[in-house]
Design goal:
Elements: H1 7-15, E1 49-55, H2 59-68, E2 76-79, H3 89-93, H4 97-100, E3 112-113, E4 126-127, E5 143-144, H5 149-159, H6 165-174, E6 176-178, H7 183-189, E7 204-206, H8 214-225, E8 241-244, E9 246-247, E10 249-250, E11 255-256, H9 259-264, E12 273-276, E13 280-287, E14 295-302, E15 310-320, H10 323-333, E16 336-337, H11 339-344, E17 351-352, E18 364-372, E19 396-400, H12 402-405, H13 409-426, H14 431-448, E20 456-463, E21 466-473, E22 481-483, E23 494-496, H15 503-520, E24 529-534, H16 542-552, E25 554-555, E26 586-588, H17 603-620
Parallel strand pairs: 1-2, 1-15, 2-12, 6-7, 15-26, 16-17
Antiparallel strand pairs: 3-4, 5-9, 8-19, 10-11, 13-14, 14-15, 18-21, 18-24, 18-25, 19-20, 20-21, 22-23
The structure holds flavin-adenine dinucleotide and 2-acetamido-2-deoxy-beta-D-glucopyranose.
């Protein structure tokens, strides 16, 4: 092992590692999960040196830690702000706990809120993010959908290569172990799939829940009648159409499969991987003697604002995997960001990189509810203790196209294309960031809108006693930012997605809700519905829909873009090897690097990014 401190020190540190609490049997029939030694004692890593220090033991962070530590001559440390989660295993392992014992609003959530949103009646939207080993993959909705070949190839061309669909698809497959649905479920939900589009050997298990409810199959039929055909292979680059997506569920015991259970728990015996929980990385420490590229020498961390600041040293690289909010925050605290922002806070600039925290894009969404004719059409709003029943999570989707949304799609496309100049000219960002944003807008306007790639996702759900159908904007023209406003790493940054700052977003999203009404009016779904509860028949005109969206819109939980992979002179933060510009050994690996938003949920993309990163890093070192 290439630890730069002596092996004796490391052995001493290992001895103080506490064993995770044995898991109590969470749910009848649920396996006793392998548990992994982790430590919550900050002194265990203090002044030690590792080849790689990963900031954030979340979705991407643990996936990368798992891959890099496969080589037992490589030492890896992970610093995670949240706890292990071993103390509360039912919550994480039970799929429908995502609704009925949600981690949102608990200590496992960073509990961010956006700044006041000017175009949403001044509301502040709630922005959950996982704060526990596994990160957001531990608390999310388990939808497993992929982006499209078209979108991935746009990412690739914006990044200047390395990230094309075929490589990225392989990386996503590498993280996945797919199991076919139960026959009864496949029949009732009209599930079609092609196993060869899925991975068979990866750490993250995917399948469909063991039970279903009548409105789901009915939604699939109704969405077709409303004009969007079933896709029988949505995982192979053509992700649009109507289907019930897979979920990150392990079929053998119907538990949630996530970054911790997939990439960390199984490697119980790897002594070259050390995981510290309950500690926030407060900054990356740099050696700036080479004026052209700063070299990270370590990471400072602490349990709380008043706690001892420790430093862990690094031989090779620091990898930031804090997610789309925390990653730009950590970079800014470390002196990487817009010089004017940093100097206004008294932070010395290490790299003047104005793109850090800019280009924030999120999927704005809201849900309509319909009262079911019979309460048996929808699940009980509780965890029952039966593993199969509790495996039910919502994943029915209809990714609709512009033709379904607009009577005259060409005129809306023209309006979008004609608006780009104004949007870019009015953007309150640096000239570099503008240049990159222009490229992303051009790609979205010309290659995404008007193609089969869907601008709106419709989600068919049964939950909390209702049939709930959501619409979510997939390629927002509105952009925002994440910016620190304090030197204190324990102070939350300002998160401003700029929701609806572009009118066209509102126009497109509003049509999505009208389309939901159309779906709800089709057989066999309409026969299951007693009436529309929310917003109800009072809302009819465009103005009324738009008011309702401003008052009810919120996040679909897919922020991205805050460490965009773009050229440096286009506001990029990382290059196409995920390396932060102006540094020799800092990378970002998480959902903040895609430069555009995708027509999908982000987990598949995040695992894919981590698998790509592992290959890149192994090849370079
Ligand atoms: C409520 C919710 C529902 C979602 N539903 C779905 C879904 O159904 N399907 C889907 O595909 N996607 C879903 N998503 C999105 C998806 O889960 C995320 O995009 C993805 O998991 C992000 O991964 P990440 O690695 O970028 O960040 P995360 O997984 O959030 O990991 C970041 C980690 O870094 C840690 N961290 C941050 N800062 C520091 C610091 N300074 N020091 C130490 N540790 C730090 C955090 O605690 C966290 O563990 C959902 C997200 C949420 C929040
Ligand atoms: C690490 O080094 C600092 C400064 O030399 C020292 O104060 C601290 O006690 C050391 N920590 C450990 C665990 O030895």
């Amino acid at each position: 092992m290439r630890f730069s401190v002596s092996g004796i020190l490391l052995a001493a540190a290992s001895a103080t590692f506490v064993s995770a609490q044995p898991l109590s049997d969470p749910v009848e029939g649920v396996h006793q999960y392998a548990k992994r030694e982790v430590t919550a004692n900050g002194w265990d890593l203090s002044n030690k040196t590792y080849d790689y220090v990963i900031i954030g033991g979340g979705t991407a962070g643990l996936a990368l830690a798992g891959r890099l530590s496969e080589d037992d001559s490589t030492s890896v440390a992970v610093i995670e702000a949240g706890s292990s989660g071993y103390e509360d295993s039912t919550k994480f392992l039970t799929p429908d706990a995502d609704l009925y014992d949600s981690s949102v609003g608990t200590k496992y959530d960073w509990q961010y809120k956006t700044t006041k949103q000017n175009y949403m009646n001044g509301r502040r939207a709630v922005w959950p993010r996982g704060k526990v080993l596994g990160g957001s993959s531990a608390i999310n909705g388990l939808y497993y959908v992929r982006n499209s070949k078209t979108e991935q190839n746009i990412w690739n061309s914006l990044a200047g290569g390395n990230w094309g669909w075929s490589s990225f698809l392989s990386a996503m497959k590498k993280s996945e172990s797919f199991s076919a649905p139960l026959k009864s479920i496949a029949n009732s939900e009209h599930i079609k799939y092609d196993s060869s589009s899925h991975g068979s050997n990866g750490p993250i298990h995917t399948t469909w829940p063991a039970v279903t409810y009548k409105p789901i199959g009915a939604f699939i039929e109704a969405a077709q009648s409303a004009g969007t055909q079933i896709n029988d292979d949505p995982y192979n680059g053509q992700n649009w159409g109507t289907y019930v997506s897979a979920a990150t569920i392990k079929k053998s015991d119907w538990t949630r499969s996530y970054s911790r259970t997939g990439y960390l728990d199984p490697v119980t015996s790897r002594s070259n991987l050390h995981v510290l929980t309950g500690h926030v990385a407060t900054k990356i420490v740099f050696d700036q003697s080479n004026s052209r590229s700063a070299k990270a020498t370590g990471v400072e961390y602490a349990a709380s604002s008043s706690d001892t600041r420790h430093t862990v040293y690094v031989n090779k690289e620091v990898i930031v995997s804090g997610g789309a909010i925390n990653t730009p925050q950590i970079l800014q605290l470390s002196g990487i960001g817009s010089k004017s922002l940093l100097s206004s806070l008294g932070i010395d600039t290490v790299v003047d990189l104005p793109g850090v925290g800019e280009n924030l894009q999120d999927h704005l969404s809201a849900g309509m509810t319909f009262k079911p004719k019979k309460s048996s059409y929808v699940p009980k709003s509780e965890i029952t203790g039966d593993a199969k029943t509790d495996s039910y999570v919502n994943t029915a989707v209809s990714y609709v196209n512009m033709d379904s949304l607009f009577k005259d799609p060409d005129s809306i496309l023209e309006r979008i294309r004609n608006s780009i100049d104004t949007i870019v000219n009015n953007a309150d960002v640096s000239s570099e960031v503008k240049a990159g944003q222009r490229k992303t807008y051009d790609a979205i306007a010309n290659k995404i809108f008007g193609s089969n790639v869907s601008p709106i996702e419709i989600l068919g759900n049964v939950m909390f006693g209702s049939i709930n159908i959501q619409a979510a904007l997939q390629h927002p023209l509105s952009r925002g930012s994440v910016k620190i406003h304090s030197k204190n790493p324990f102070t939350k940054p300002h998160v401003d997605p700029g929701y609806l700052s572009q009118d066209l977003d509102l126009t497109i999203l509003r049509q999505g809700f009208k389309h939901i009404r159309k779906i709800a009016e089709q057989s066999p779904l309409k026969e299951l519905i007693e009436y529309e509860q929310s917003p109800g028949s009072d809302v009819q005109s465009n103005d009324q829909w738009e008011d309702w969206i401003r008052q009810n819109g919120g996040t679909e939980y897919h922020p991205t873009g805050t460490s965009s992979m773009l050229p440096r002179n286009e506001g990029g933060v990382v290059n196409n090897k995920l390396k932060v510009y102006g540094t020799s050994n800092v990378r970002v690996v998480d959902a903040s690097v895609p430069p555009i938003s995708f027509s999908c949920h982000l987990m598949s993309v995040t695992y894919g990014t981590a698998e790509m990163a592992a290959e890149i890093i192994k090849n370079e070192n």
